[in-house]
Amino acid sequence: MDSTVITGSLDQYLSGLWLTVHLVTLSCAIGLAAAIPLAVARVSRNPLAYGPVAFYTWFFRGTPMLVQLLLIYYGLGQFAWMQAQWEAANPFWLLFREPYFCALFAFALNTCAYTTEIVAGSMRNVPHGEIEAAKAVGMSRFVMLRRILLPSALRRAIPAYSNEVILMLQGSSIASAITLVDLTGAARNVYSKHFAPFEAFVFAGLIYMALTFALVALFKLAERRWLAHLRAQRVESTAS
Amino acid sequence: MFQGYFLTILGGAALTLELALLSLLFALVAGLAGASAKLSRSAPLRWLATTYTTVVRGVPDLVMMLLVFYGGQMLVNHVTEYLDVGYFDLNPMVAGVLTIGFIFGAYFAETFRGAFLAVPSGQLEAGAAYGMTRWQVFTRILFPQMLRHALPGLGNNWLVLLKSTAIVSMIGLSDMTWLADQAGRTTREPFLFYLLVCALYLVMTTASSWLLGRLERRYSAGVRSADL
Prior knowledge:
The structure holds two protein chains of two kinds. Chain A is mostly helical. Chain A has helices spanning about 5, 10-40, 45-60, 65-75, 80-85, 90-95, 100-125, 130-135, 140-155, 160-170, 185-195, 195-225. The radius of gyration of chain A is 22 Å and the shape is flat. Chain A starts with a helix and ends in a 14-residue tail after the last helix. By secondary structure, chain B is mostly helical. The longest helix of chain B is centred in the first third of the chain and has 34 residues, at about 5-40. Chain B starts with 5 loop residues before the first helix and ends in a 9-residue tail after the last helix. The interface between A and B is large, with 41 and 39 residues.
């Protein structure tokens, strides 16, 4: 092991780490925000509401994220219409030539599909007593959704969602396939410069591990905060 | 429509499936070994298995694959130089099977561990009371029942494994993703070919889910379930 390989390229690793962190944070935030209304549609009884959502989650959960990323970044340029937009310098469609935007778009679409199914599954598991109680006090569908169903379902979804975020962190390493220099991309550059695969990739792996542990700890805190009512309670002695 | 590349990509799909199945085989063996180590009485073995599953959970599959592919090649070179035998190329298929098998072995270890613990110990004691040897208890009682508990977890991991094969194209294995990339470049129709790859993956994942559902029902025969 040659530690100068790592110390000499710390700045590359740091900028790669920064890209990884904000790609994952942004895509998870967008994915979660979009997943909540989609999950509501997913559990609806109207086929026009749940049908398209079911198709979307089936497609994005059934194909590799790498292929989705390549489809968006390299694939869209195939269409003459898209090329015409680029020629005309349309600011919106020009975004699809940016590797950063394409990665964000693909990651957000992917994690949103998984999150939709997680939240929808959690909504189906809300105890029906809670729903009946909400109806009994005369809440409208929307009020019930906002006050009872979603808060209860989102809390219960935290453990499954923490897994999804960790998988996104790991999955984001494919960003280097479309020329982005994220943490993995930095490691690949360091490898090809110094021809030192062990130093380059083990160091990147250690940073990913540290990030994973930080996420696990963060979600533990979230569970303690929002799932406190589901924890086993200490039995108080009632004998007097 | 596919300008003669359709059969090429189908060949790539066969390679993808081969890679996935070989990795699955390796992962099942590693998973059973990992689960036995986790449940063993020896503390160093338990510690080793816990390190294995923790490291794998924390490091992206692509990083591990690059390490195995480039680092493994360097190791192989050192060994062949030392032994003074000819140059040996570590091919992407071997690196892919080793890495994916190693990674999913860790996930399977967790699944198997839980499944082994789910078999009631009274049944194992009953087996011993009938005078069965430890091996007979394992093959007749523990293993078949463990499999029923493990099946849902194994199924989910298989679906994840199948999709993770795509990243082996990044170290140059000519699987269907890599071939689609090549075909897309020459025909200037990348969208079409990547979409074809998506469709082929969807066929594999959808067929797998259907099959797994049937298997689960088969292995749960004789287990009562209540309708809500």
